[in-house]
C-alpha cells in the first residue's frame, strides 16, 4: 500500500474535521492511522501540514482587483488545469485573493513535484474549513469536491 500525505489528510478530514466540537487526542489519532496502514512518515507530514495551516495569519486583500503571476516553482507544481481551477474559484467567489494565496502556500508545502486537480480541490476545502467566516465558500467547495468523487465513496 503506497499511501501519501494527501491520503492521510483526506482520511483525517473525513473522519475528524466534521465535528469541530470534538477534540480527539492526537496520539489516539496517530495510533488509528498506523493501524489503518498509513506510514509513520506520512502521518507526521500530515500533522505538520495541518499545524502549519492553523498557524497561518490572515492575509489582507488588496482593495482593487489584482492579477496573480505564478512563479516558475508554482507553475511546475500547479499545471494549467490547477491554475485554471484557482482562477475559476476566485472568479466565482469561493476563494478570495487572500484564501487563494493560502491555498498556494499550502500546496507548495508538499514535497510532491506536481499536485493533481483532485488533491488541489481537497487542499482548497481544508483551507476554507480552517478559516473563519468561510462557511458558505466551504459549502460550495464541498459540493465541487464530492460531486467529482465516485458514487461508491459516498
Helices and strands in order, then pairings?
Layout: H1 5-16, H2 26-35, H3 40-54, H4 72-77, H5 80-91, H6 97-108, H7 117-130, H8 135-147
Which tags fit this structure?
8 helices, disordered C terminus, 154 residues, single chain, 0% strand, mainly alpha, globular, 2 domains
The chain-level structural class is mainly alpha
Largest sheet: none
Number of helices: 8
Sketch the topology as an H/E string, one letter per element.
Answer: HHHHHHHH
Average of per-residue pLDDT values: 83
Helix content: 55-70%
Shape: globular
Radius of gyration from the alpha-carbon trace, in angstroms = 16 Å
Strand segment count: 0
What count of structural domains? 2
Strand content: under 5%
Question: How does this model look, in words?
Answer:
By secondary structure, the protein is mostly helical. It has 2 domains: 1-55, no CATH class; 66-154, no CATH class. The chain is built from 8 helices and no strands. The longest helix is centred in the first third of the chain and has 15 residues, at 40-54. 21% of the residues are buried. Mean pLDDT is 83; it is low at 149-154.
Summary?
This protein is mainly α.
Amino acid at each position: 500500500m503506497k499511501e501519501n500525505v494527501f491520503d492521510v489528510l483526506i482520511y483525517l478530514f473525513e473522519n475528524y474535521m466534521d465535528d469541530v466540537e470534538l477534540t480527539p487526542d492526537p496520539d489516539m489519532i496517530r495510533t488509528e492511522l498506523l493501524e489503518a496502514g498509513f506510514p509513520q512518515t506520512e502521518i507526521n507530514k500530515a500533522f505538520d501540514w495541518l499545524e502549519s495551516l492553523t498557524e497561518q495569519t490572515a492575509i489582507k486583500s488588496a482593495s482593487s482587483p489584482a492579477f496573480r503571476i505564478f512563479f516558475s516553482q508554482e507553475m511546475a507544481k500547479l499545471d494549467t488545469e490547477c491554475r485554471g481551477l484557482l482562477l475559476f474559484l476566485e472568479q466565482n467567489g469561493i476563494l478570495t485573493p487572500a484564501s487563494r494565496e493560502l491555498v498556494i502556500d499550502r500546496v507548495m508545502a508538499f514535497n510532491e513535484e506536481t499536485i493533481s486537480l483532485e488533491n488541489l480541490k481537497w487542499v482548497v476545502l481544508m483551507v476554507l474549513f480552517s478559516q473563519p467566516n468561510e462557511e458558505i465558500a466551504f459549502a460550495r467547495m464541498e459540493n465541487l469536491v464530492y460531486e467529482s468523487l465516485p458514487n461508491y465513496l459516498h
